[in-house]
Structure formats: structure tokens, C-alpha cells
Amino acid sequence: MDTLIVSCVKKNISFFCETLNIQGSNFTYINQITVLPSIGEARRALLEKDYDLIIVDSPLEDETGEDFSRQIASNSISLVILAVNNEHYYTAAAVNEKDGVLVISKPIDKDFFITALSLARSANIKLKHMQTENSKLKQKIEDIRIIDRAKYMLISYLNLNEQEAHRFIEKQAMDLRCTKRSIAEGILKTYAS
Fold first, then answer.
1. CATH code of 69's domain
2. Which residues of the chain register pLDDT less than 50?
3. C-alpha distances out from residue 186 to 29, 57, 114, 145, 150, Å
4. CATH at residue 156
5. Residue 82: Cβ within 10 Å count
6. How far apart are CA 93 and CA 43, in angstroms?
7. How confident is the model at residue 81, as a pLDDT?
8. What does DSSP assign to residue 104?
9. C-alpha torsion angle, residues 37, 40, 45, 46 (rounded to 10)
10. Residue span of the structural domain in which 47 resides
11. Quick one: pLDDT at residue 25?
């Protein structure tokens, strides 16, 4: 799990790194930890690399980190933990948790943080599985669209009915040992010209 810590407080950075390293040695899921002092630098880093876990230690030098946390949580599968001062916890939680940000209050209890990491890890694994399934479904839908367009071309140009067009694509795929989609793409190229 590649981790980005956005914090400008050395004591908190040490706490997060030590706790992550303890977790890493116990569960071997922390690969690399990157520490940055500002949201601006974190935004630039995210343009170059994706992180599985992002810990934002609010407030930061350039902003509180709440907008950044919500944006990352809602636009990626990265898990985002926002650490806020105890007096701001309930307000921050009410606003940020709607977008999938895990909000914790400071000072942070080590055992509580380890539990939050475990929950975050479990959620991340589930989210990645869901993303994989979503990608597979999108691919299937796209395959069906292309095959249906190819069937329409066969119906239009070769005067086949829908069942014959379907059988034609299936037979070609079996005979040539390739996917129905690649046969359909070939048909579209042939008749679209």
C-alpha cells in the first residue's frame, strides 16, 4: 500500500510513519511512505503517482486540507484519512465523511489509529474489487455494442436476419479462434468504408 502523508508537524509525521511501519511489519502491506508538507506539493505528487492511502494532517501551511481530502476521496479509489483537531472533529466529520473521507480527531490514540488503518485497508481491498468488476462490466457492455453494430451492418448489407448475423459472427470467431468483438470490429471496418 503506497502511502502519502501530508503534514507539516514533525511530531505527527513521526507518529504516522512509526505506526505505519509497525503495521507494515505486522501485515506487510505498507510499500512506500511519501511525506509532503503542503497540499500544493501533494496535488503535484498525485499527478505523477497514485497512492492507496493518503493521510492529511489538518491544518496545513497552505490550506486546511478538507477540500483536498474530499476531492481525492470522491475522484479516486485512494483511501483518505483526515486528522483534525478535536474541537473541529464533529464539524469536519459531518462535511467530509459524505464524500468517503475517514475523519479522526487529534491527539490520535495509537490503538485507535491502527484500528482505523485496518478498516481503511479492508475498505480499500473491497473498493479495488468493485472497481475491477465495474471495469469488466463496462468492457462487456462495449463488446455488446460493437457486436450489435456489426450485426446491423450484416443485416443491412447482406440481408441477413438478426439470428443469422449473430450466428455468422459466432462462427467466424470460432473458425478464426478470436473474439466475437474482433470479428465485429473487422465487419465494421469492411462495411463502414
1. 3.40.50.2300
2. 25-28
3. 45, 54, 54, 14, 9
4. 1.10.10.10
5. 27
6. 22
7. 94
8. E
9. 120
10. 3-108
11. 47
